[in-house]
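Both lines are quoted verbatim for reference:

——
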Amino acid sequence: MRDRNRSIASILAFSLLFMLLVGCSRDPNVRKQKYLERGNAYLKEKKYREAGIQFANAIKLDASFAPAHYGMAQVYLASGAWSAAYSELRRTVEIDPGDTKAQLDLGNLLAAARKRPEARERAELVIKKDPLNAGAYALLGRISAAEDKPDEALANLQKAVELAPRTPALYVQLAGVQWTAKKAAESEATLKKAIGIDPKFLPAHVALGNLYQRQERFSEAEQQFRSGIEGAPEALQARVRLAQFYLARKDKGQAEQVMIEAKKALKDEPAAYRSLGEFYMGIGEKDKAMAEFASVMRDHPKDTAFKKSYIELLLADGRTADASKLTDEILADNPQDVEGLIYRANTLLVAGKAEEAIRNLEDVLKREPQNAFAHHVMGVALQVSGDSSRAEKEFREAVRLRPEHVPAQRALATIAIRKGDMETLASAAEAIIGREPSAPDGYVDRAIVELANKQSDKAEHDLQTAIQVAPTNPLGYVKLGEFRFAQKKYSEGEKLLEQALERNPNAIEALQALAAFYLSQKQPDKALARVRQAIEKAPNNSYYYLTLGRLQASTRDYAGAQESLKKAAAMDPKNPDAMMALGQVQVAAGSPDQAAATWKSLLQKNPKDVRAYFMLGTLQESRKDLAGAEELYQKALAIDPNYAPVANNLAYLLVKRGGNLDVALSLAQVARRAMPDSPNVADTLGLIYLKKGVYSSAIDLLEEAVKKTPNSPEIQCHLGLAYQKTNNAPRAKEHLQKALQLGLKSPSLEEARKALSELGVKG
């Protein structure tokens, strides 16, 4: 009986315990905490996908669980998804404003996005809550440095170091500001302190090696880079930096050996076994790169990410069939692989089937409208088809969705340079540098912004960095050479451009800059000789023949120019610039019918090339076919409503033909925004204000235009008419008579004579 009672008691106790356990497991607060703990454990192991799943599970249970949102932000930060990380950090601090770690991470993201006032606000919030927070002072130092406030930056970073004297990363940051402030000895000492704290801290060795390299202390620089490898043998970055050092010293063999050793030492690391092929691409040895990529593909056939990189390389090399074969393999394994579908569109694009590629991408974007990669490739396809306005919108959408998507940032940077949009260029430059610190173009783009802001010292530093990080890439040499020309250091500039051509005989920007320099020095024969010399070394470069043709046209050798431009067009039928230039030379040579045929031929291949419509429109204007010109301009604006030259010409045409002045004003304002320094645009806008009776605005614009183009009879006439309307007879007579002296032609001629007659002057 006792045994039975004991048994029942045991069963009851077990049942109670079971119920308690089940109850706990069903308690959402307990479950979310377990998900958080597992997520944090996975984060420590760098298993980001698994960590993300755990944090997502916790958030499903409690959308206001701040630690899970912060954990998810860490996952996104680790994978470079800055936009998503920003959203999670914002959510974290909304729920828990006292989370200083989240506030700091958010501040650093804001600083990287150049939103410095907001970043400063985050840092100050943290200091208010925790006055001894070193990270907050470090963030303030970073912001001050970016704002070109070196003393403030140094004070904040020194405070950070005082608060966390055993944190080597803070010393590295401080050393960078000291170097920029031209305190080289202090910078060196600070980096040595960082290494003293942690002899294996790679960033300190790399920074000190960089410092020694800039000071031409090459043996010490090499030793630091090697010490970095010894301290962090698993870090690919250390080996890449040593290879870059050897390339800068023109020791390609040593650099290659470093990368071969990296591949062997880190054979199971995808970034490492891919790096040798990327190295060969970087130094322009395409055949070796192709062989290396093919070898890696054989060794790692299941590495889909690498397969996709290989497809990109094959497409860039024009090997569409091989790229298509690998794309088919990806889609055979997974027909819904979105990247595979995008690569299929890419192969169509390379094969010259832009419209078909666009249709394919439209299907992809219907399924995945948030796919940044698809938006980027769509932008490229639209550019190829001549729809530059829509292309820019696609690139902007790609960057909005994924600010870290470097190809879209590069596309936007190119557009921003063309438009003079320094804000967009600055943002793109920071994004490129953040994601690809070993690529030269980010530093070059940032230097362009700095020069626009008259920050020559910063620009100099960035241009030197562009050369240092990519010593075999001609870009840094070209831009620094152009900078030297602007400084009137002509021999240095010439030397840098020649170095660019040594590194890449097909460096078109270097050749064009050299040719332009010789022309500016009134040495056209030297320019022609240098271009012909470049053609001997790179006989298949269509852009070299294009450059030669333009030079020949500038010396009025129209027959030679046409021959060169026809060669350029034949070599690369996809190069519309050669056809554009050929038409212009034909007009200059007195063959407008040939020019029209050339541009019409260009439109058959590129039906959305607004430049061709523009040139045909100007040709029709010169033939007095104003209706035909207007029709062509309207077609161009239907493709790109913001194409400034067309907007300006159409606005002027509407005024002269008695068209709608409000429409003309809107078009002229589009042109003015894009071309604020153009005297022709100022004239058009001034003429519209004159016709609308807004005389003070008309005079301001027309005075600006006359100052820039004093020998234009039309502009002088318009200004004279504006002064007549304000009863300023002396100024009206002055400009109207000047217009007649310069050879004003009808119909403005009669208008000027009538105005002078009304002023009592015989025309």
About this structure: The CA atoms of residues 338 and 756 lie 71 Å apart. The radius of gyration is 32 Å. The longest helix spans residues 2-26.
